[in-house]
Amino acid sequence: MNDDVRQLNKRVQELEELNRLAQALSSTTGVTQTLEAIIQCSLTLCQSERGAIVLFESGDVNEGHTIIRNSAPTLDPIDHRINVIVGGYVLRSQQAFVAEDIITTAGYINPPERLRNLGAAMAVPLTSDGKIIGMINHVNSRDGRTFSPDEVRAAQIVASMASQFIVRAKVHESLQKNVEELKESLAKEQSTHRILGESASIRKVREDIALVAPSSANVLIIGETGTGKELTARALHNQSPRSLKPFVAVNCAAIPAELFESELFGHERGAFTGANATVRGKFELADGGTLFLDEISEMPLGLQPKLLRVLEEREFSRVGSSELIRVDVRLLAASSRNLAEAAKAGEFREALFHRLNVVPIVLPPLRERKEDIPLLAQAMIHELSSGVKIFDPEALELLESRQWAGNVRELRNAIERISIFVRNKNVTADDIRTLGLHTDVVSSKRLVFALREAILSEQSGKSVSELIERELLKIALAECSGNVTQAARMIGIDRTTLHRRIEKFGIQQPAERDDPSNSSPR
């Protein structure tokens, strides 16, 4: 009666263990987690000291490899040669292997020291679609337990359950790997191909990106507003080993000075009025990836030493906390100002400039690579019209004749307007003239660039008189029918900066209208 009770309890324990295995296998798709669950269940049911799962590649034990080992902490895992010998038997005989003395059965005459203490062994095949794909092998010490028929049966049950899950996990992991590789490949391809142009200057930019991207060096991207600084930063990220990690972009010109530190480094709840919750800053959000600081020249001088410290020591504290947070972030910065001159003038920390300027990438303005305008225009109209519209040669010549003070950004805005208002498939020179896109909005290019430099460098009182600046702002607003966004784009500054200058000079704005066209487009 006692033996019957013991047998019943043993069966119950087996069922419970198999149920745990079934639950574990159904809740995971990873190969490693699947194998660990299988070997642990098999060791428990068979009361064995050492276990291993061996998979045979192409049905050949010589090409097989042990993909997981498990043993008591004080014991060495099963020797690879033992796995090969036992695996050969299982593969040839298509059945389980059982031996009371694995050393004798394996034909060792003078076994190495590490194998002399091995005793009983038992292995069962793993099958899929009628083919043996591997085995689960068990080995005990010489003076340990032998394996009973019940334990062989239990191991076979585990193996029959395990095989399909091992195959599923391998397929899933392979698919995941392919998806990640495809994502990475597409990201790199897109990031390169979107930097369009065949001019020597833009080819050099692409070459520089390819050279610099794999490193962790800080990069300073220099270029006028609208030349594609963020696009370049994204290309550097997408072609780097960090491409599957976060890319976090920050427009420094759009952050109020009093919120700058919190924005970058985060804050604790109650750190200041309105801080109702703990918030992670951009550095934490970019951990493992890339942080892009656009228009970094707008960063408050008082905060620049803290940024320098983070770049050097890779750690910081949130506002309202003394706890140090370590991060692994690659920093990319961009500026439309000459930071070297700003540093000499005391308007930017020289030490920070040198820390950022490890690798400079200079983006050419569109007026210096006019030969790229037709290619850019055709690509943009193809994208924005879903491949429906194209430019006539004369239309492209007309677009190429403009100066495009707002660079690629201004060109894209113009192409977007064309894609909306021009109804014909072929966009002609007349269409462009009808929309008023055939000449530069401000007739004097030099005045526009002088204004832009004055505003961005905050040196208007020295380099351009306030009277001239005020008049130029009025001209720009008038030419754009009061549309502040268009005026800012034309000058080459952001809308917020233009609003500040308008308020400073007390300029009365004309009634603002939305991107008008006085004539009916085709």
Question: Can you offer a commentary on this structure?
Answer:
The chain is of the alpha/beta class and 522 residues long. The chain folds into 3 domains: 2-173, 2-Layer Sandwich (Beta-Lactamase); 194-364, Rossmann fold (3-Layer(aba) Sandwich), CATH 3.40.50; 369-505, Orthogonal Bundle (Helicase, Ruva Protein, domain 3), CATH 1.10.8. It is built from 21 helices and 14 strands. The protein has helices spanning 2-26, 31-46, 80-93, 102-105, 149-193, 200-212, 229-238, 260-265, 282-285, 304-313, 339-344, 350-356, 373-384, 393-400, 407-421, 429-434, 445-457, 460-463, 466-479, 484-491, 495-505; strands at 50-57, 60-71, 97-99, 118-128, 131-141, 219-222, 247-251, 290-294, 315-317, 324-326, 330-335, 359-362, 390-391, 426-427. It has a 5-stranded antiparallel beta sheet. A 5-stranded parallel beta sheet has the order 7-8-11-6-12. It starts with a helix and ends in a 17-residue tail after the last helix.
Attribute tags:
Beta-Lactamase, disordered C terminus, alpha/beta, 15% strand
| Count of individual domains | 3
Biggest β-sheet strands, sense, barrel: 5 strands, antiparallel
Tell the overall outline: elongated
Distance between the termini: 98 Å
- The CATH H-level homologous superfamily of the largest domain: GAF domain
Mean pLDDT: 80
Q: Radius of gyration in whole Å, from Cα?
A: 35 Å
Topology, number of strands = 14
Helix percent reads: 40-55%
CATH class of the largest domain: Alpha Beta
CATH topology of the largest domain: Beta-Lactamase
Percentage of residues in DSSP E strands: 15-25%
- Give the count of helical stretches: 21
pLDDT < 50 stretches: 459-464, 513-522
Output the strand order for the largest sheet.
2-1-5-4-3
User: Strand pairing plus helix content: what structural class?
Assistant: alpha/beta
Q: Tell me which CATH architecture of the largest domain applies here.
A: 2-Layer Sandwich
